[in-house]
Design goal:
Helix content is 35%, strand content 28%. By secondary structure, it is of the alpha/beta class. It has 2 domains: 1-80 and 158-240, P-loop containing nucleotide triphosphate hydrolases (Rossmann fold), CATH 3.40.50; 91-156, no CATH class. It has a 6-stranded mixed sheet, with helices on both faces. The longest helix has 16 residues, at 171-186. The two termini are 27 Å apart.
């Protein structure tokens, strides 16, 4: 199996705190991988380390066969990797259109954005079109999450990394998000999702990695984990 992204023995310190303790993680190309684990297990730190926002103190990160461990965050993003952080990173005072335009590096103005791709995004996330000229800060949490993901895919990406896309969302919005990620997966993009919503994980995941205490303690097929209640209990302290 071809892996698009690999972490090999990654350690990350934040100040005096040793957060990641030798993370080994392989993300298969063209699949949706769920990164699960209890709060504080190191999931968000893993994503931030991949993006160069926090530095590895030991180990390496490889993308498409290239060692990207020492690259800064803008250089990593330019490799066609998009990252949606847990706080969504929306520019509240800008309109939805202006938020999207900032992410569309090839467009100097709204008219230069890829019309066909925008149409596809509007079908995935109707709220993006509906609130196109509204300040993004005035949107609901679910609408902001849609804008954040839409902004990340305004240009074709090789890898999409999203931290807890369903957090705090109403069930109807969660189902909308599941549909959108299913379509994104079908379009061929490789996706890495951190998620606490196990229904979300079960519906979407091809492969899964479970973290605990700064390490990956289980990696395999999502369907196998979804069918093994004892394994879920031991890894996550709860059952799907």
């Amino acid at each position: 199996m071809s892996h698009l992204l690999e972490l090999r023995g990654v350690h990350t310190h934040i100040g005096a705190y040793h957060i990641l303790h030798g993370v080994d993680l392989a993300i298969p190309r063209g699949q949706l991988t769920m990164l699960l684990g209890r709060n504080g297990a190191g999931k968000t730190t893993t994503l931030r380390t991949i993006m160069g926002l926090w530095r590895t103190s030991k180990g390496s990160v490889h993308f498409g066969g290239q060692d990207i461990t020492a690259l800064d965050t803008p250089a990593i993003a330019h490799l066609n990797i998009a990252y949606v952080p847990e706080n969504m990173g929306i520019f509240a005072d800008l309109t939805v259109k202006e938020n999207m335009l900032l992410a569309a590096r090839k467009a100097g103005n709204a008219a230069q954005m890829d019309a066909a791709r925008l149409e596809w995004i509007f079908k995935l996330f109707p709220a993006v079109e509906k609130f196109w000229n509204h300040p993004a800060g005035k949107l609901s949490g679910g609408q902001k999450q849609m804008v954040a993901v839409a902004r990340a895919i305004i240009e074709p990406r090789d890898l999409l990394i999203v931290d807890e896309p369903s957090k705090g969302l109403a069930p109807a919005i969660v189902n909308n998000m599941i549909e959108a990620f299913a379509q994104l997966k079908q379009s061929g993009v490789t996706i890495l999702l951190v998620e606490q919503n196990l229904h979300f994980a079960q519906r979407l995941g091809d492969s899964v990695a479970v973290m605990d205490n700064g390490r990956v303690v289980h990696a395999g097929c999502m369907a196998e984990l979804a069918q093994d209640a004892a394994l879920q209990q031991s890894l996550l302290g709860l059952a799907l």
